[in-house]
Specification:
39% helix, 5-stranded parallel β-sheet, 7-stranded mixed β-sheet, single chain, alpha/beta, 24 strands
Length: 502
């Protein structure tokens, strides 16, 4: 583990784990240690000392670190992509080298620019009353925990949370995901070298691989932490939040989401088949392993809707079973499909079963009447992480509105409406009901992509996100999660931060 600037070997009797190659089903040879409570304590002590040292660090050092780290990742892109592909089954090209690694380095450079501009601090000056305020560092290390599905762009030692926390002046304690520990180790090596080159503290970047539940609960409730950034499952996110809330530690969580998509009747009449193809393509993209995957479709009964469902069923039935990120995911997918059918959902299609080795998820499309959904909303909103989706067919507009009222929080909500305005009246009724439960509202567009833009919101009400006022993507807004609001009342001019002086 990377602790206080050194790669510390684990003791001989410590618990270890080895990841799998999901494309082949083979367990990889390298083993990684599970951190003990003593090692976590050392990480926290070193992080606390680093946070004190960072008070005298310059903004230029932070920007040099982030920029230098981005350059190092670019230089090692082929090596990193090959390593990540072995651990995750994700294709080297175009997914890793063409999309995710450039996105990762782009985020790091955007965060560097934001740190340099100081815009994220949102300075406010009331000269008449000699009051000034701005956001500043929390003065403590930040714990970052990444997911299985983005080994770079959301990695605890390279992703958006990492970039935002560094840009705001925090040392990082990063937890690797056990699905891709080797990838994270290599990233941590590059990050440590870049931080050292920028003259930052030894413990600017620390990294461990895994921990048991008791150690994890203690870590997330340790007041030496300034904040926690997490992307992953709702079950784990809730545990993190419970421990952190008890200690008053801010948590910024991006968890599960079924991302409802409403296809209104006029849009169906215009192009039902094209919409079905667009929807199915989005759901099957990347084997459905995106937090913005369209997992719930809202429709109204009619001939055009049946055409849409028939076309989507055909696409799903012909879709191949493909490699998922871990051996556990296809098992969870099967459990999720069975759970919905046990709740009376109709199974419309399963994809082509695979005879190949490895962790392969089989696509699934299901259907349920709107009345059944309204009568049993919680059960029909369980997330099926993977290439699976549920179509809700409401009897009429009133029932569709009733379905909308029962929706849980999601990261996104989407609405497809007729070009001629035929759906506008219904949209005006449905959108306010659904949109209040989502962080991003889309028109005539699938939610799968998340652009790295200052205007992007990747978050939402709990439990899709940890707080509806913050986003995990979008600079400088994502940086403000890791800020403490400070007020300077009648402070002498020469003692004010530069951005608060007249």
């Amino acid at each position: 583990m990377l602790i206080n600037g050194e790669w510390r070997a684990a003791s001989a009797d410590v618990a270890t784990f080895s990841p799998f190659n999901p494309a082949t089903g083979e367990q990889l040879e390298t083993s990684y240690p599970v951190a003990t409570a003593a090692e976590i304590n050392d990480l926290l002590d070193a992080g606390t000392a680093a946070a004190l040292q960072l008070r005298s660090a310059s903004t230029a050092q932070l920007t040099d670190f982030l920029s230098g780290y981005a350059d190092a990742i670019d230089a090692a892109a082929e090596e990193l992509a090959a390593l990540a592909a072995t651990e995750t089954g994700l294709p080297i090209a175009p997914r890793l080298t063409g999309v995710e690694i450039p996105r990762t380095t782009g985020q790091l450079r955007q965060a560097a620019a934001a740190a340099q501009s100081d815009e994220w601090t949102n300075p406010v000056i009331d000269a008449a009353n000699n009051l000034r305020s701005r956001l500043e560092s929390l003065g403590k290390p930040v714990l970052t925990i990444g997911p299985n599905n983005f080994p770079f762009a959301f990695n605890g030692v390279a992703g958006g949370d990492f970039a935002a926390a560094v840009a705001t002046g925090h040392p990082i304690i990063a937890k690797a995901h056990p699905a891709h520990p080797g990838t994270t180790q290599r990233l941590a090596e590059l990050a440590h070298d870049a931080a050292k080159a920028a003259g930052l503290p030894n413990a600017m970047v620390q990294m461990f691989y895994h921990m048991d539940a008791a150690v994890g609960a203690s870590l997330c409730g340790d007041t030496r932490l300034g904040a926690i950034g997490f992307t992953g499952s709702e079950a784990t996110g809730r545990k993190i939040k419970a421990s952190a809330d008890a200690a008053g530690i801010p948590t910024y969580l991006e968890m599960s989401s079924i991302n409802p998509v409403a296809f209104l009747p006029g849009a169906m009449e215009e192009k039902a088949i094209a919409l079905a193809d667009e929807y199915a393509g989005s759901c099957l993209l990347g084997v459905g392993q995106f937090c913005t995957n369209p997992g719930l479709i809202l429709t109204i009964a009619g001939k055009a809707t049946e055409v849409f469902i028939s076309q989507a069923t055909q696409v799903f039935a012909g879709a191949a079973s493909a490699v998922m990120l871990t051996p556990a995911l296809p098992v969870h997918l099967e459990s999720g499909v069975k759970y919905l059918t046990d709740q009376s959902a109709e199974l419309l299609a399963r994809g082509v079963a695979s005879t190949e080795a490895g962790a392969r998820g089989r696509p699934a499309l299901l259907r349920v009447p709107g009345a059944a959904f309204v009568a049993n909303p919680a059960e029909f909103q369980s997330e099926m992480f993977g290439p699976a989706s549920l179509i809700v067919v409401a009897a009429d507009e009133a029932e569709l509105l009733a379905v909308g009222a029962q929706l849980h929080a999601s990261l996104t909500c989407s609405f497809y409406t007729a070009a001629d305005g035929a759906d506008d009246a219904l949209y005006d009724q449905l959108e306010p009901i659904v949109a209040q439960k989502s962080g991003r509202i889309l028109n005539d567009k699938m939610p799968t992509g998340v652009a790295v833009s200052p205007a992007m919101v990747h978050g939402g009400p709990f439990p899709a996100g940890g707080h509806p006022g913050f986003t995990a993507v979008g600079v400088p807004a994502s940086l403000r999660r890791f800020g403490a609001l400070k007020c300077y009342d009648n402070v002498r001019p020469d003692r004010l931060p530069a951005s608060l002086r007249d």
